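User: Just a sanity check before I run the rest of the batch. Below are the structure tokens for the first item. I only need the designed sequence back.
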């Protein structure tokens, strides 16, 4: 299993490639996959309530995506000595500033339940939920590792443990262990995300 510094180095290379290709979608995907938890840490340190921390990171990612999508949005990162580091620093600054704005507004603003809105969230909201679900799956796969993720996916698709063991050429007890460990880790991710 690769260590964290190796994965971060690979991410930096992928970010630099995405900057060269001016691929804003890939940049956001990589940031979510590798740095979502770090961004949540920034929001947490600002003492933003748990449910709002994810909103701060998502709104920051949208703002960052909009910036990158503009003409010349990648220019400052392409010209930097370390493009990936410069890009991440910029993203984390947006998260920090968005968090501060949220704290300031939070004192004046009251949360309105979705059910009471005259016009419920649009297809854009459904799209963002779909992206959030894809990001969660990507995080889960990264966190669990390929084997545990595959076992959990097969189990959720209706395979019984013996079928999974046969399919993956593993012992039944090994599959049981990996499944239980994967479920435990998956629950911890879901509880961290407020689900």
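Assistant: Here's the designed sequence for the first item:
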């Amino acid at each position: 299993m690769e260590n964290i510094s190796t994965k971060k180095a690979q991410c930096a290379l992928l970010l630099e490639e995405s900057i060269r290709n001016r691929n804003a979608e890939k940049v956001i995907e990589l940031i979510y996959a590798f740095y979502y938890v770090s961004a949540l840490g920034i929001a947490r340190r600002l003492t933003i309530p748990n449910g709002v921390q994810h909103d701060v990171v998502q709104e920051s990612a949208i703002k960052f995506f909009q910036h990158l999508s503009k003409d010349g949005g990648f220019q400052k990162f392409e010209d930097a000595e370390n493009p990936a580091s410069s890009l991440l620093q910029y993203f984390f600054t947006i998260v920090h500033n968005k968090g501060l704005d949220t704290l300031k507004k939070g004192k004046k603003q009251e949360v309105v339940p979705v059910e009471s809105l005259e016009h419920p969230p649009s297809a854009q909201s459904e799209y963002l939920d779909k992206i959030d679900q894809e990001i969660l799956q990507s995080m889960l796969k990264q966190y669990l590792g390929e084997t545990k993720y595959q076992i959990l996916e097969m189990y959720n698709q209706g395979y019984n443990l013996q079928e999974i063991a046969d399919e993956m050429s593993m012992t039944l007890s090994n599959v049981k262990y990996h499944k239980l460990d994967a479920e435990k880790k998956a629950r911890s991710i879901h509880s961290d995300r407020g689900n």
